[in-house]
């Protein structure tokens, strides 16, 4: 039965493909030709997979369209390559996750909803939306998440909305992504990633809803995008290098974050990250680097420039004592992921708690931390604390933080401080 449906679809496709290819030189397929209902009620996952399998094999540029004016309900799907290059998924309609997917009981609950893997030269674009359907979590609901009782049937990891694995030369443009149960857009073990003009939105109180999450991914450009969520705006994890963010607005959320790195004494390597022309509003942090004690490896060559903050609790943070729970995990250890070469240039705006917190490791102080023209003032009178600088070496120029002791960054040989232990980057 299913195979006859599939072969009928294939036949239709061949005709459609031939017609489209003749007129434009690129092939356009619609999921509607593969039996998708697009009514927001019927599960269109099978139709999408059938369409994908055909689109994937068409040589030359192919566009697989989810047309506007339709709502495509999809159960979790994996769309995998290898496919012919220049395949585009054009989302003009709305793609919907099953309701309450984030609280499905564990055996059924997927790790990701739209799972793309093994693709090269692939794009997602369009004027449509991808909606995770997660109800906004009230603080009460959020606390139920951690206790694993009540509304959320079982604790543990909730699905990432869109995930790319082992994919190269991927671009995601123009779409809106909202209401994920967890991370919205994740790239894992990938490279050559471009995200542009994307809007991500989830409530500020939705737990663990990172906007864009990068791990083991190189050569990334995130531009002209607006991200609001309940966790990190952009989260950069180990194995990432050459990451460039430009013209990104984060509101609300936890700001741009490198880490937590080095958990459970692991190796962490992050280098060559630039975030420029960034706006962070109504957030816990502005730009942050967080590492666990006991890790190895390094965070190197990081630049934050032209960062405007408003109503941010702590705009600038390096925390080498990061720990997301109490107890033995957080005991002091001697090793640390080294942090070397972090520049803050023109970070300006208002904070609600502490303008700057540089808490670096006793074993591996932060070196080459430079500040140029950092101007932060309290959003309101009272209730704030003074900046902290612990084991941070570097240089501050043209810096006006109220109130800031000029000796915040310790100078030693200018930028670099000779380390007490032999320094091995490992990375
Ligand atoms: C950005 O995306 C929106 C929504 O899809 C679209 O309307 C707009 O034209 C895009 N802007 C650019 C410059 O592509
Ligand atoms: C919290 O969960 C309950 C179900 O237990 C739901 O009815 C309510 O709408 C949720 N609150 C919010 C703000 O979504
Ligand atoms: C990625 O794109 C670049 C430039 O368009 C090209 O040179 C390179 O071969 C592509 N790499 C892969 C793995 O597709
Ligand atoms: C620092 O990172 C930037 C951005 O990736 C790169 O252009 C530059 O060459 C790097 N500098 C060093 C010394 O590695
Ligand atoms: C760990 O080290 C920091 C900095 O030296 C110190 O403030 C803190 O009290 C120590 N914590 C424990 C549990 O020893």
From TrEMBL:
Q: How is this protein named in the record?
A: Polygalacturonase
What GO terms in the biological process aspect are recorded for it?
carbohydrate metabolic process; cell wall organization
Similarity annotation:
Belongs to the glycosyl hydrolase 28 family.
**UniProt-listed Gene3D superfamilies:** Single-stranded right-handed beta-helix, Pectin lyase-like (2.160.20.10)
Does this entry carry the keyword Secreted?
yes
Which keywords, in A-to-Z order, does the entry hold?
Cell wall, Cell wall biogenesis/degradation, Glycosidase, Hydrolase, Secreted, Signal
Q: Which ranges are annotated Polar residues under compositional bias?
A: 133-149
Which SMART domains does this UniProt record tie to the protein? PbH1 (SM00710)
Q: By its UniProt entry, which InterPro entries does this protein fall under?
A: Glyco_hydro_28, PbH1, Pectin_lyas_fold, Pectin_lyase_fold/virulence
Q: Say which domain of life the source belongs to.
A: Eukaryota
Q: Which residues form the signal peptide?
A: 1-21
Q: Return one GO MF term.
A: polygalacturonase activity
Query: Where does this one sit in the cell?
Result: Secreted, Cell wall
List the residue ranges of the region (Disordered). 129-154
Origin organism is: Zea mays (Maize)
């Amino acid at each position: 039965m299913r195979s006859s449906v599939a072969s009928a679809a294939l036949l239709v496709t061949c005709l459609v493909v031939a017609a489209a290819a003749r007129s434009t030189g690129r092939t356009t397929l619609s999921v509607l030709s593969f039996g998708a209902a697009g009514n927001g009620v019927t599960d269109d996952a099978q139709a999408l997979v059938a369409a994908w399998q055909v689109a994937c094999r068409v040589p030359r540029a192919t566009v697989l369209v989810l047309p506007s004016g339709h709502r495509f309900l999809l159960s979790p799907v994996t769309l995998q390559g290898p496919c012919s290059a220049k395949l585009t998924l054009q989302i003009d309609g709305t793609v919907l996750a099953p309701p309450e997917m984030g609280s499905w009981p564990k055996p059924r609950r997927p790790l990701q909803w739209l799972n793309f893997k093994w693709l090269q030269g692939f794009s997602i674009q369009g004027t449509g939306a991808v909606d995770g359907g997660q109800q906004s979590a009230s603080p009460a609901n959020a606390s139920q998440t951690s206790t694993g009782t009540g509304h959320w049937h079982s604790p543990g990891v909730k699905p990432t909305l869109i995930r790319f694995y082992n994919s190269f030369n991927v671009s995601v443009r123009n779409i809106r992504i909202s209401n994920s149960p967890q991370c919205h857009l994740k790239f894992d073990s990938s490279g050559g990633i471009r995200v542009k003009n994307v809007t991500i939105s989830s409530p500020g109180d939705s737990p663990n809803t990172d906007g864009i999450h990068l791990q083991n991914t190189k050569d990334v450009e995130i531009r002209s995008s607006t991200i609001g969520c309940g966790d990190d705006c952009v989260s950069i994890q180990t194995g990432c290098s050459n990451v460039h963010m430009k013209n990104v607005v984060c509101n609300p959320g936890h700001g741009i974050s490198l880490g937590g790195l080095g958990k459970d004494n692991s190796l962490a390597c992050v280098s060559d990250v630039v975030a420029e022309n960034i706006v962070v509003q109504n957030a816990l942090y502005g730009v942050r680097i967080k590492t666990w004690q006991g890790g190895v490896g390094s965070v190197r060559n990081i630049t934050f420039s032209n960062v405007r903050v408003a109503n941010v609790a702590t705009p600038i943070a390096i925390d080498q004592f990061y720990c997301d729970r109490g107890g033995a995990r957080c005991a002091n250890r001697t090793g640390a992921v080294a942090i070397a070469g972090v520049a803050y240039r023109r970070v300006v705006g208002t904070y609600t708690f502490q303008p700057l917190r540089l808490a670096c490791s006793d074993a591996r102080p932060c070196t080459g931390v430079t500040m140029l023209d950092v101007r932060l003032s309290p959003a309101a009178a009272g209730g704030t604390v003074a900046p902290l600088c612990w084991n941070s070496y570097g240089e501050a120029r043209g810096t006006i933080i109220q109130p800031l002791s000029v000796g915040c960054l310790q100078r030693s040989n200018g930028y670099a401080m000779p380390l007490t232990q032999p320094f091995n980057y490992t990375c």
